[in-house]
Amino acid sequence: MSRIFISGSSAGLGLMAGKLLAEQGHQVVLHARNAARAEDALRALPNAEAIVVGNLETIAGAKDIAAKVNALGRFDAVIHNAAVGYREAHRLTEDGLPHVFAINTLSAYILTAQIERPKRLIYLSSGMHHQADANLDDILWKMRRWNGSSAYAEASSMTPCSPSRLRADGRMPIRMLWNPAGCLQKWAVQPRPTIWIRLIAPRHGSQPETSPRLI
To answer: Who contacts 94 (Cβ-Cβ below 8 Å, separation ≥6)?
Structure first.
């Protein structure tokens, strides 16, 4: 039985992955940005081991989430799924960063750096990275007119930056999953989307019968 933490898992693909992994007998720890979403996740997956609560849009918030995850002990796998969409208006975080960049790019880097290294790392991103220019001279959108779709695409193209500091260690499998949402149509007509779940955690053992905790 593997222990798996999934960021951004109170709904959508993150929650779907949590449900599938739990059904396969793994211990799953979810993440929600606030208490209300945590309660929703708890109702959707009552057999989760715990639910980490915290907002990833600030540097301090991402570090706090990493500390809460570490307090739960080491994980076999961490799935980086948290993100906002491509129709977001321009908004700066408390750190003065565009919130799309802060959540979709920077938070995964912080979690990668600060969570105790798991046996496997999985990063979910969008196929829109094909539409992105690097724009490394203006990744914070200070010189350009804001475009939510372009900001999202650029953030997707930067996803590989998060595990880049770990690539020299060949002992750690790193999975990059581009455009997982594109699989939803295929999944809708098949019994279970288990192909990439099996890459994350091979089944062994059974799931304990404990109540989830809000962390």
So the answer is: 58, 60
pTM: 0.81
Yes or no: say if 12 and 37 are a contact pair by the CB < 8 Å rule. no
Angle at 154 between CA 87 and CA 6, to 5 degrees: 75
Residue with tokens 């009552």: 46
Question: What is the Cα–Cα distance from 17 to 34, expressed in whole angstroms?
Answer: 20
Got the DSSP string for 105-159? Answer: IIHHHHHHHHSPP-SEEEEEE-GGGGG----GGGTT-SSS---HHHHHHHHHHTG
Confidence label for 121 from pLDDT (cuts 50, 70 and 90) = confident
| Helix runs in the chain, H state only | 12-23, 35-44, 59-71, 99-101, 107-114, 148-157, 184-188, 195-200
Q: What is the pLDDT of residues 146-180, one digit of tens each?
A: 999 999 889 888 877 766 655 555 556 666 665 66
Residue 114 CA to residue 57 CA, distance in Å, equals 16
The pLDDT > 70 percentage for the chain reads 74
Closest CA relative to residue 114, chosen from 152, 154, 62: 62
**Cα 118 versus chain centre, distance:** 14
Exposed, middle or buried: residue 13 (CB in 10 Å: 0-12, 13-18, 19+)?
Answer: buried
Other beta carbons less than 10 A from residue 52's beta carbon: 24
- Show the tokens assigned to 137: 């001279």
